[in-house]
Amino acid sequence: MKVTVEDVSSVKKKITVSIPPDVVNSAVEDAYVALNKKAKVKGFRPGKIPRHVLKSIFKDEVKADVTEKLFGDSYSKALTEAGIRPVSYPEVDTQGAVENEEFTYSASVEVAPTVELAEYKAIEVERLKVDVDKKEIEAFLARLAENHSTLETEEKDRAIKKGDIVTVTFEGSIDGKPVKDAKAENYPVEIGAGRFIEDFEKNLIGQKPGQHLSFEVEFPADYQMKDLAGKRVQFEVDVKEIRVKKVPEIDDEFAKDVGEFENLKALKEDVKKKLEEAATKREDQAVSRRIIKKLVEKHPIEAPRSLVEAQSLDIIRDTEMRLRSQGLSLEMMEAKPDDMLATVQPRAEYEVKARLILEEIAKKEGITTTRQETEERLKNDAQALRMKYEDVKKRYDKNDAWDDLASRMTEEKTLDFLTKLVTIKEVKKLSKEFQDTTEAEETA
Question: Is 366 within a domain?
Fold first, then answer.
């Protein structure tokens, strides 16, 4: 077997394999012997069919089978001999195997680029100083009080105003025909909260419980439900009651009600601590993004197309899962697959480059992840998700996902290693270079 390699680009190689005629003839002989045993030809018993008869009937089938066998037997060996580790399936070009002739094929594959590591230890990034001020604490307490608010029926005979929560029963129609998604009974509408159609809320203001209303509402063109987007809908509405939100006073009693706090001062101290912890965690993640951005800038490598496509699909799948958790879907958002692929491709390419660079640094620094470590991570993840470890483990075994988990963990370790290694300057305000660091790549 003769193997030659051509560098098509920094991430693509073309490997050409030639197999001598004697090996081809042996494979052809084996194919006809096997075929003779199972072929059914009128006038001949199995195993007793003359070769010329088999050739006249099954020549093309044998050629295809022999070509497939010779490729299968030689491809992996050729890759090993050439020292190639492909990251894509091969694009094979061949005329097929012919008896008494050399069999030649070429296989074009993508490979990871060679990453010539720059001086990554000299990277310098900025880190925002975590400083939780009084306004942030007060805003958090206000949200907390809002979450502990109660709803009370308004006893006064008055009109609906902003801030009221109005219970309504309504039914919408277009050209006299009822609309399935525009009907509800005893539905709560918080006036001014922006959670419902604005024009619908405006028509309720100034009205009173017990009234029947009839009005038309035009839905926004970008409304998430296609059946209603851009349509004018006639509504018949019965106003049932007004409820008022009672927000508790933020005082010592409130502090005791929301937790085991002696007074409001103790609650504020706890809130400040938690806000600082959350801000520190966010800034830790931001520092990692800034380090990655610097790494990508220092290493101008090409990302294999196949890896970018796979990463793009992963991003879209993650997006679908997030939407489903919100009761939405890509279809409801009118997102077209081709458009989405084009939209996420820059982010996917960036992430592939970052991963390849981090892998090379991990290799150089001897950073690895053991099977025991992956199992421990999976146990912790299963516990956090309130799932049985054995069930999650079976899924990983079935999908052969252990290597992916190990790769992610090694990437995390490498980032932790770099965070301790590079120069990090704490600042009150980020310089222009580090503002919006990698946010575009993450949200593209």
Answer: yes
